[in-house]
Write a structure and sequence with these properties.
Two copies of one chain form a homodimer. The first copy, chain A, is built from five helices and one strand. Chain A is mainly α. In chain A, α1 packs across α5. At the A-B interface, α3 and β1 of A face α3 and β1 of B.
Amino acid sequence: GDPAAGRAKAAACKTCHGLDGVARIPIAPHIAGESEVYLETQLKAFRSGKRTHEIMSVIAKDLSDADISDLAAWYASIAFTVQMPE
Amino acid sequence: GDPAAGRAKAAACKTCHGLDGVARIPIAPHIAGESEVYLETQLKAFRSGKRTHEIMSVIAKDLSDADISDLAAWYASIAFTVQMPE
């Protein structure tokens, strides 16, 4: 997918997930740096109904394959580093 | 939950998710720094069957509420920072 196109399409996602993939609400997952295959699998699962959520099922319903591929590319393009507690 | 207890119990998770929550395989999500409520919700969904996955459904089946709470506390305790592409 095209990350730049995905960044624009992420306007629909950023309220809960953030444009940077850092969730703004605790019930939403952080998706920064998730792999494209994981993100695409989950969005397609929400679209097909294999996975359900009161918000994501509605949002995913109208996503095209290109939308899904671009959104996955955008969020996968965000780098992250972790620090484990001592 | 107790992050230290969760860290020990994460022996069952680290093969795919990493002890640090950075996924080792592309089909598994990064779970570093996810919120406790999100992690607990997903583990309970896998345990109850509300959410299904060939591996997670099996692993979650035998998790107690305490296991779920401790694992969520461990992975939620991992800090992370993100860098958006320019």
